[in-house]
Write a structure and sequence with these properties.
alpha/beta, three-stranded antiparallel β-sheet, Dna Topoisomerase Vi A Subunit, Chain: A, domain 2
């Protein structure tokens, strides 16, 4: 950890930024494995009671954003409003984001890039004045920090659309409650206001998802659900979510968001998402 602390000290003194991967390759023969650097960074954050970005250690951005928003990151301007259905990268240096202007009515977070692209192709943001964000799977730190920044600054409702499976549910809880790995920095990363838009287990019946689109839970899926059911915060803060998670286990099946589009390619954009929000069919 001392070696990593010396590298971090140099970054701060020189006002430079580095990724964890860059730090590893500074002394690969000393660190031996990337996990050594990862753990050291976490330990330093806990010791110093700070966030990773305070150490000038940044993550390579993986998230995407589109919709009715304009903002700047340092000298770079992100003008999503001029082309609401065009994807832009989520900013990495979230602490430098300023001049946020938005005409959106809500923020929609989608689990996967494929769904994000489907919405873009359907010109979703033209028909719905909103901001759409994806972390492309499990969200990285910049995506989570940026989402929190937007919710705090714009005071907009935020909805999350994930696959109806254990991993989709885990991604949903990562946005709302944070992750165990980054528990020391939860207050800067969690978005407690986010609501679950879908997909719910009951959606397969409500929206007539064919049986061939319902996949059996694997043994690993079942173990993951059982482990998540032990999380005390679910029962305390979102008991309805926990009931839905139990329902996934009881039914023994899962399905992807795309299964809802089996009857029409643009079903998500034109029917599912708007009807969910307008009818308040969210949790």
């Amino acid at each position: 950890m001392l070696r990593v602390m010396l590298i971090v000290q140099k970054l701060l003194q020189e006002n430079k930024h580095s990724s964890k991967r860059d730090i590893y390759y500074t002394y690969p023969s000393v660190f031996l494995d990337q996990s050594v650097v990862d753990q050291a960074i976490n330990d330093i954050c806990i010791l110093m009671q700070c966030s990773r970005h305070n150490l000038n250690v940044v993550s390579a951005g993986n998230g995407l954003i589109m919709g009715w928003i304009r903002f700047s990151e340092g000298e770079r301007i992100f003008d999503c409003i001029s082309s609401p259905n065009t994807a832009h990268p989520v900013p990495v240096h979230v602490e430098e984001v300023q001049d946020i202007i938005s005409l959106a009515q809500y923020i929609l977070v989608v689990e996967k890039e494929s769904v994000f692209q489907r919405l873009a192709n359907d010109q979703f943001c033209n028909a719905n004045h909103c901001i759409v964000i994806t972390g492309r799977g499990y969200p990285d730190i910049p995506t989570r920090r940026f989402l929190r920044l937007l919710v705090e600054n714009l005071c907009l409702p935020a909805y999350c659309l994930v696959d109806c499976d254990p991993y989709g549910f885990d991604i949903l809880t990562t946005y709302r409650f944070g992750s165990m790995q980054m528990a020391y920095d939860t207050k800067h990363l969690r978005v407690p206001e986010i609501q679950w838009l879908g997909a719910f287990p009951s959606d397969s019946e409500r929206y007539f998802v064919p049986n061939q689109c319902l996949l059996p839970l694997t043994a690993e899926d079942k173990r993951k659900v059982e482990a998540m059911l032990l999380r005390c915060y679910l029962e305390r803060e979102v008991p309805q979510w926990r009931l839905e998670l139990q329902l996934i286990l009881q039914r023994g099946v899962k399905f992807e968001i795309e299964a809802l589009s089996v009857h029409a390619l643009s079903f998500l954009s034109e029917s599912y998402i708007p009807s969910k929000i307008e009818g308040k069919l969210i949790m």
